[in-house]
């Protein structure tokens, strides 16, 4: 058995902002939490519900002489379990007020009615996409991921775009959906610092993950379109430093965003090429776009594929026909 690596100390990455790196059991690797000093001591994100994540958070706080009881507020960038899983454990100790986008609430609360709808949504989406029946077990696995690495908690205050965060007068909320419907970023204008969550990451392109709408009567969100729009909003802003949910900080955000947007169009062009020899389902296109990843990372890769199908639909470059509940796409 390999010897466990020592936990990292909290690092001051900008004035009054400490980064605490937390291990996760996921392929994305460690997640970054941020401690903000202001009128109220505020933690941004919570990490997954694992003992390793908890120990790393306690060690990071201890390295800057902060006790968990001193945390007064917790802001979630989004509801994915690597960012919110141990929210309740921190809240029980600190009594902190919790903040998030309204669309994070049913995930954080582990609302059973919503999660039942969540499972039905993905079952219908995957069947429509041509996913083989034997692979639909991935829906149950994803559901289990939520309940394994997160604990039911609560959101006390919901946040909206362009508002100031209570207790953090210098910080403004940005709604940056795409990677998640509940995704928020935080911006401090005085020194042009952005806490970007999973919206802007240096080493990997954030997956525009498809999620169900909050209202069952609505169509599913066009997540890649949302993601591109939110990226373009950030490209128009003066940002000197973007602090990401994973990996190192980003300097030169406009160049990175331009690369990501261009990569989108390259993949859309690839989709057009794949359709030149005849119609295909989303699952078949997914296997061709991501031959090495599509089986073990189906929810991520299929979201990416459907996002590019959405772009082609918006451009009126794609047609579809339904055969026994499965959609087949052609140019």
From TrEMBL:
Coiled coil: none annotated. Residues 30-246 form the Metallo-beta-lactamase domain. It holds the Pfam family Lactamase_B. It comes from the Bacteria. It catalyses: 3',5'-cyclic UMP + H2O = UMP + H(+); 3',5'-cyclic CMP + H2O = CMP + H(+). InterPro entries: Metallo-B-lactamas (IPR001279), RibonucZ/Hydroxyglut_hydro (IPR036866), Sec-metab_biosynth-thioest (IPR050662). Counteracts the endogenous Pycsar antiviral defense system. Phosphodiesterase that enables metal-dependent hydrolysis of host cyclic nucleotide Pycsar defense signals such as cCMP and cUMP. This is MBL fold metallo-hydrolase. It comes from Brevibacillus ruminantium. The lineage of its organism: Bacteria, Bacillati, Bacillota, Bacilli, Bacillales.
